[in-house]
Amino acid sequence: MNANMCQYHQNNVTAAIAHTTSIIQYLIDEYKVDPNAMISNTFYIHDKKISYYSDIYIDLGEYLSVHLSGGHLSQPELDNPLDLKPDTDEKTFFCITTISAYYVPQTRERAQTLLDQICRFKLFPSSETTLQMVCYNPQSGFYTSSILIKRPIIKDLRLNYGDGFLEVHEKLLKRLREADSTGITFLHGPPGTGKTFYIRYLINEISEKSLIYVPPDLVTEMTKPGFLPFLMQYPNSILIVEDAENIILDRKDNINPNQAVSNLLNLSDGLLGDAMHQQIITTFNCEIKGIDPALLREGRLLVEHKFEKLSVENAQRLSAELGIDGADQIQSPMSLAEVYAKKTSSK
To answer: How far apart are the C-alpha atoms of 46 and 21, rounded to whole Å?
Structure first.
């Protein structure tokens, strides 16, 4: 019987690879595939005594089949968001790079459903960036220590932060990548809404500038006289200040002038800023209305965004994407931390 065969071809996005073993087991469990009926080609690594599929063709019946190609043995260091089980003692995986579904026009919708199902089993190359963390010694003053920050797996920013967030991210990333630029960004919202998680993602998108990180326990040290001279060693960089409530609140509420606010003003839009070209990202939990108005002035403020709980729909969608059971039973808004906590507890 001749059929007008079509091909739907899906390469894994975001430089992902798919886990062969999980896909095959899923097809056996859900599509009742007979593993002895799969047409395959294998590759054998003699010194490791390991064999894996390089190509597999599987007929699912009713004019639908799937081809898994580009089989290989992964590197040990992979991001594994679904906690898939490694295939070897060395914590490596049997992977494929391309999934193709073959179908007739009448089974096109079924083919798309199949691809959506099996493309979930993804692994990602591990990515890290270097932060220069600010440290302080009473005798020697300020210095930095390098730390590696792993890039979190965020396949869709809209799932994690709402439908309008992608525009915020693209605007902020564009401004941060600009050479010889200044300004300040406020990322705020209740605890657990994903501010730090997002910053970890954001900084892995920036390779053009040095990243200077002020940890929460050193934020108040920014008022010391030696802080600005220390920062002058890092022109055209990005300063990241976490939990910055204590240094950005309105100065009229303080008995003593807030030297930290003055420092931020000078860096973001003063003469010092013109010389150093340094941008600033701050995170905090308080309301924006409590912030010193001078920091919010147009021309100084790059981006201001409030992180909030995910809507019921977004919480359900993200939970389903993360493989959390009972995603459709979510009935109230959830913070990002609450969603990921459910993922951890479901392991």
So the answer is: 20
